[in-house]
């Protein structure tokens, strides 16, 4: 096979993979946003066939040959093709090392385990989920052995979501966070500052909530010709190309800020995808650099911008206009304090900015030990509760609000949780740099979201995954990951809010 | 390859085809019901890749070998597998006879021609569409030559939509219709009966229209766990399996009966698909027997049931409750007359039951001559207008409301139009038989739609395409296609309505 032939065949394989992955995403979107109830059985079968085709193409002999020829002629490739080849080599090697029948067995296991986890959670009975989780972990550990690892087996899993991340870096990162955040949390617990939140649980018409969510999306420059907002049980973002990026939120009548913050959070993810460079948009590089960098964008919008007083100076009048009876006696300041209130709580997805990282730390430490084989699945509920007690000073009364609260493990997502904490830290580090050239507060106050978006697009978005997370971080902030920016951001904010 | 191997491989190919076709349908559904505007480009590419995979699998050497082995062992196959083999053999031969590069060229041509047709229609300028239509017809004529034909080249195209249908049968069928309907239309034109329609063009809230459409669907036994109603520009039905059958309607504020009748019409299609037998539901036989039989079900619900006075005796109170101000001074009888009013009009999709077949006749005669090569594309506007004048006594003032009105030809759908007329005739013939065992009027009056559905399911729906259209007709009505039932149905109805 000569270079031209290899290029042609390589492209054909990638185009097919793209078509199947597009179909998989659309089936997922459709299922989450309103497919008929009985469609579920057929859907699972179709998804299985499509995923298996993607697998087969990725590990195929043709793919292997294409990669070899392309790698041999690397000098003659343009930079985009070269990066695509590196990406596909990684994926090819990863999947080739795992025996196909074990991979299929694992896919089938995951196909069942979400429903089992859901039942276990609903019944608050860890023993129902235990055998599935044991099997998932034992298979993952085997896969890590097949795939090989540097230093620590967990590194191989981390790399799937955050290329280049290691336990060494994370231990240091979480160490610093722990050292500084835990005392701050304690100080706030002992503060006698009273924050009013009564109005947060009033009834808010969901139709009007939707209008307000749409209003925010428009203002933050979400392109509605290249995306849409719908409702689903759990909010998520799904991207087909930068021309079609869809997000969901969930409207609760008695918790209206939930939909607002889900919309802004997913909106941040969507802006990333919509602003990927046109040169790479149609390639496999046309997506976020990593889960952590992605999360930095959603957290930037949700927290750095969306919980800033200046953001609400601009949006609050419209919010009051939308819900006059509920908010007429709530001042801007009271509203701003309420949406920033910190409280030690049991549920990660309801946690505030300050305590959020502590929830991630618990999961990180547990996952690392599980993958090392240092702890056993049956001991998880006890270990979980001890750690929550240690970091947050509260003990889960049952497993539903404890070890069973997250869906991730039933989906085989080990190594994924740290991205959430990294996202927060990346966001603060980016913000620090951004402030050197942009007056963020003034722009938020004036609703000039096109200006902040432009900065993010030029520095982060447009590169898609052409650059690795650490490359982006160093190029933009002139530094490696440094948790101090996030800590300072939190200290400044919460010390002011709680007068501590 | 032995029989077991052939069965296994055959199933694998069919499963893949199913997954790709499922994806194609979902992309189409998504596009028609709300995908972001800019998604369109990417969508076309993905659809092309998926369709090409289906093509390749269908004409593949593996498929050929499987078919040969399965056919050789036909005695050992169960009846369903045997029917599936016959279906796939037909499809395989059809696609194999057409050179792949010409097929691709044709697909690309169709990919462009709809937009060209739309532009031509909007500008009412046939010359814009002319070169595309010429190319479509010249390619279709070549394909017919490749595929071969019995008696008349148009028969090969007819057979794609209505297996077993021929020009000989249709000439006879339309001959009888013309002979009896044209005089009836003339009589009605000269009748001095006044039918009130002023209220049809009042304003009707579209949200309430939707509620009423949902109400009708529920009553006629559409299973909402296995389907849904949404809005799209042009109403359609799309089926994934019998567990997921989706329909659309379109709500016009100033034309509320449009949405109602689209809902009932598509509902009729959907009931057919939802009631296919479980034994064949997962196979390629798990869909309607033909376009004509499908249309008989939609027309049965839309016209035979949905324009019957007893149907409205049951539904009209609810309709008045939904739109009290618009309908308070409209009697049930006035409403019933209005929705059955006959008028010679230019647009097929707005035509009433009586004149509808005349619109189809015009298209049938023109298509037949085009495929024979007896007329030229450039002469179409003139020929169209002459025929409309001949059958309906009116002349289109321009091509937009004349030869350019339908999308079908730009999609390559030649041989499809007759299904619409056949559907009406089949429906009347089925109704005639149904009345021997069911008191339809009483059931409609009492809203006992489960009873009529049961009859349709047992006689028609459950067979899917295990039986050919003519087999179904003969088995159910003990007769071949006989247009007299439809004519008598129309005569009885319209002579009474217009006192002629």
Give short descriptive properties of this protein:
homodimer, mainly alpha, 500 residues, globular, 3 strands
Beta-strand level of the residues of chain A, as a percent range?
Answer: under 5%
Briefly note the structural class of the backbone of chain A: mainly alpha
Radius of gyration of chain A: 23 Å
Sheet bearing the most strands of chain A, described?
3 strands, mixed
Number of strands of chain A: 3
Order of helices and strands of chain A: HHHHHHHHHEEEHHHHHHHHHHHH
Spatial arrangement of strands, main beta sheet of chain A = 1-3-2
User: Could you list the spans of chain A in which at least 5 consecutive residues all have pLDDT below 50?
Assistant: none
Structure in words:
The structure is a homodimer of 500-residue chains. Chain A has helices spanning 3-32, 40-59, 61-72, 79-97, 100-123, 126-147, 153-161, 167-190, 206-219, 256-274, 291-305, 309-322, 324-327, 332-338, 353-372, 380-392, 417-437, 440-445, 449-459, 469-477, 484-498; strands at residues 227-231, 237-241, 244-249. Chain A is mainly α. In chain A, a hairpin with a 2-residue loop joins strand 2 (237-241) and strand 3 (244-249). The longest helix of chain A is centred in the first third of the chain and has 30 residues, at 3-32. The radius of gyration of chain A is 23 Å and the shape is globular. In chain A, 40% of the residues are buried. The mean pLDDT of chain A is 96. Chain A binds chain B through residues 15-16, 18-20, 22-23, 26-27, 29-30, 34-39, 41-42, 45-46, 49-50, 53, 223-228, 240-241, 243-244, 246, and chain B through 15-16, 18-20, 22-23, 26-27, 30, 34-39, 41-42, 45-46, 49-50, 53, 223-228, 240-241, 243-244, 246.
